[in-house]
TrEMBL record:
Mg(2+) binds at residues 73, 143. HAMAP family: PyrG. It comes from the Bacteria. SUPFAM superfamilies: Class I glutamine amidotransferase-like, P-loop containing nucleoside triphosphate hydrolases. It catalyses: L-glutamine + H2O = L-glutamate + NH4(+); UTP + L-glutamine + ATP + H2O = CTP + L-glutamate + ADP + phosphate + 2 H(+); UTP + NH4(+) + ATP = CTP + ADP + phosphate + 2 H(+). GO terms for biological process: 'de novo' CTP biosynthetic process; pyrimidine nucleobase biosynthetic process. InterPro entries: Class_I_gatase-like (IPR029062), CTP_synthase (IPR004468), CTP_synthase_N (IPR017456), GATASE (IPR017926), GATase1_CTP_Synthase (IPR033828), P-loop_NTPase (IPR027417). The keyword Magnesium applies. Belongs to the CTP synthase family. One of its GO terms (molecular function) is ATP binding. Residues 6-269 form the CTP synthase N-terminal domain. This is CTP synthase.
Length: 528
């Protein structure tokens, strides 16, 4: 008889930013050896997706293969679980209310008063059920965004509370992530915030099976006994969520704490973890043989979450090349001091929107090209590399992107013709995975070891076809183009140590066990 689908629901308490996404990803990794697992994220905000949010608001926007713009936690899910997530797996309250409104307009509610319970909660549960029917997973891990007690996630909490009746109590467990502080001067782990958070959860009819306590140190036996006693969970089900320097240590910590065995027992499943390769990679990050410094030129550098996937891509390279990569954050809205690039082994110009900081980035790219400092351009980084090349090597003075300067005499970067009529910002870009044909004999082709690759995109502007010929005549190589030959996807300057850029975001597909090829090649060049 086929095993029914099992469910793990992960909630958070006390304060935000405790790392529920990392906990979900780590639990999934530990259980993935024999089980098909899918993660679902429920976010309480009323945006349909985070695509139009400023990175300062909510961190990086993560783009999926199917073009969905989702929460950055999906990056952790993909990197830890090795799955390719889908749009439907991200459920925001904005999406939920959209679905309810459409059903009401169609008359699906047969004239009844539409209420939060049961109508909104039913939409949430039905959506999860539909995903299970489509994907047929062995295990679903549901992360409820926000903190217990927030008004935004009350309907999601009510929906997952009801699920224990729908799927059977033996097929669902509730994991609650809390904070165990050690106040300065007291040097004692405190359980009161956890007790109060669990009480808030119980008031909503959810009784946690496992409690993970985020703490600077391993939880003591005394504090585990106290949390067990006051929160009605077994002592062995109180797990340390240790503060770690590197998030990839979390599956190792959870394994040490016995978390996989507890889940096996509670859900009557068996999928033992094999962390041998993972531990070796983590050891390489912890104890690197070499060290490099890479300048990151962006306009969101004050919030590192804005570039989370890029940081993780470098971590993956660190794990495989056993080198420490120090990222030197350079705020390009005020890049007048060219000495900021002194002593760096490489330069990365990441994606972004708008004109703020672009001239500083262009200047940084010029310095990298002239000094033969390894350069990697991502999305906007490719566009600015083309602008710099056009201005200084093609003698196209004033060349620019029409995004930055609509009146530029040489629009080497321009908006897609089919995008010019679009006024709504949400979901109107070239989004998701697109194929590119790679040119043999190029650096990019040697790194991907393939004639065709697929990378994810998130942009509106492209290299203007009117300028393809002059750019190539002056020495720029288009190492990857779209299959219809209209669009430039990769560029390089082969005479330099490493100067490559892509219109895509290869960081979105980088994995701990399989680093993004462009990043890997860039780091190797920096090391040389």
């Amino acid at each position: 008889m086929q095993m029914p689908t099992k469910y793990i629901t992960v909630t958070g308490g006390v304060l935000s930013g405790l790392g529920k996404g990392i906990a979900v990803a780590s639990i999934g990794h530990l259980l993935s050896s024999r089980l098909k697992i899918i993660p679902i994220k429920c976010d309480g905000y009323l945006n349909v997706d985070p695509g139009t949010m400023n990175p300062f608001e909510h961190g990086e926007v993560f783009v999926l293969d199917d073009g969905a713009e989702v929460d950055m936690d999906f990056g952790h899910y993909e990197r830890f679980l090795g799955v390719t997530c889908k749009s439907r797996w991200n459920l925001t309250m904005g999406k939920v209310f959209n679905m309810v409104r459409k059903k009401e307009r169609k008359g699906d509610y047969l004239g009844k008063t539409v209420q939060y319970i049961p109508h909104v909660t039913d939409v949430i549960k039905n959506h999860i059920s539909e995903i299970v029917q489509e994907e047929k997973p062995d295990l679903v891990i549901i992360e409820i965004g926000g903190t217990v007690g927030d008004i935004e996630n009350e309907l999601f909490l009510e929906a997952v509370r009801q699920m224990k009746e729908d799927v059977g109590r033996d097929n669902i467990i509730y994991v609650h992530l809390t904070y165990v502080p050690v106040p300065y001067g007291v040097n004692e782990q405190k359980s009161k915030p956890t007790q109060q958070s669990v009480n808030l959860l119980k008031q909503r009819g959810i009784f946690p099976d496992i409690i993970i306590g985020r703490c600077p140190d391993f939880l003591t036996k005394e504090i585990k006994d106290k949390i067990s006693n006051f929160c009605d969970v077994n002592t062995d089900a109180v797990i340390t969520g240790l503060d770690v320097d590197d998030i990839y240590e979390m599956p190792i910590i959870f394994e040490q704490e016995g978390l996989p065995e507890i889940i096996h027992k509670k859900l009557n499943i068996y999928s033992p973890p094999d962390l041998r390769k993972w531990k070796k990679l983590v050891e390489n990050i912890r104890n690197p043989d070499r060290q490099i410094t890479v300048a990151m030129c962006g306009k969101y550098t004050k919030l590192e979450d804005s570039y989370a996937s890029i940081i993780e891509s470098f971590n993956h390279c660190s794990a495989h090349l056993s080198c420490k990569i120090d990222l030197k954050w350079v705020e390009t809205t005020d890049l007048k001091d060219t000495s900021l690039l002194d002593g760096v082994d490489g330069l990365v110009v990441p994606g972004g929107f708008g004109s703020r900081g672009t001239e500083g980035k262009i200047e940084a790219i010029r310095l990298a090209r002239e000094r033969d400092i390894p350069f990697l351009g991502l999305c906007l980084g490719l566009q600015l590399a083309v602008i710099e090349f056009a201005r200084n090597l093609c003698n196209l003075t004033g060349a620019n992107s029409t995004e930055m300067d609509p009146d530029t005499p040489y629009p080497v970067i321009d908006i897609l013709p089919e995008q010019k009529e679009i006024t709504e910002k949400g979901g109107t870009m070239r989004l998701g995975a697109y194929p590119a044909a790679l040119r043999e004999g190029t650096v990019v082709h040697s790194l991907y070891r393939s004639n065709e690759v697929s990378e994810r995109h998130r942009h509106r502007y492209e290299v203007n076809p009117d300028y393809h010929l002059i750019l190539q005549e002056k020495g720029m190589v288009f190492s990857g183009i779209s299959p219809d030959r209209r669009l430039v996807e990769f560029i390089e300057l082969p005479q330099l140590k490493f100067f490559a850029a892509t219109q895509a975001h290869p960081e979105l597909k980088s994995r701990m066990e399989n680093p993004a090829p462009l990043f890997y090649g860039f780091v190797k060049a920096c090391l040389s």
